[in-house]
Design brief:
Strands 1-2-3-4 form a four-stranded antiparallel sheet. A two-stranded antiparallel ribbon has the order 5-6. By secondary structure, it is of the alpha+beta class. The termini are far apart. The chain has one helix spanning about 75-90, and strands at about 10-20, 25-35, 40-50, 55-60, 60-65, 70. The protein is built from one helix and six strands, in the order ββββββα. It has one domain: Stage V sporulation protein G (Arylsulfatase, C-terminal domain, 2-Layer Sandwich), CATH 3.30.1120.40. The chain is globular, with a radius of gyration of 15 Å.
């Protein structure tokens, strides 16, 4: 069955927490995502030091028994990018 319809999706950051002194990890964020009236929480979005001094937002992840880190949730690229931009804006210097 092919999906051809689009859905209304919104999100809101519900928690931002700075994590200084934790290596590459700078902070954690949670988001509430609403898809056509159905709400779910995405907890444990990570803000880390990236290469060349920049910040990188990573989706929540877990360690597989083989030691590999895997994403705990896979979001559509557009939604993941929008959440990442919002999180980066919140962690930028001078952000509220």
């Amino acid at each position: 069955m092919a999906l051809t319809e689009t859905a209304v999706v919104t999100f809101m950051l519900t928690r931002l927490e700075h994590a200084r002194g934790r290596g590459r990890l700078l902070g954690l964020a949670d988001a509430e995502v609403v898809v056509e009236g159905v709400t779910f929480a995405v907890k444990g979005i990570r803000v880390v030091h990236g290469g060349e001094g920049g910040l990188v937002v990573q989706p929540p992840r877990f360690r597989h028994p083989d030691g590999q880190w895997l994403p705990a949730v896979v979001l559509p690229r557009e939604l993941e990018e929008a959440i990442a931009a919002e999180v980066l804006g919140a962690f930028s210097p001078g952000a509220g």
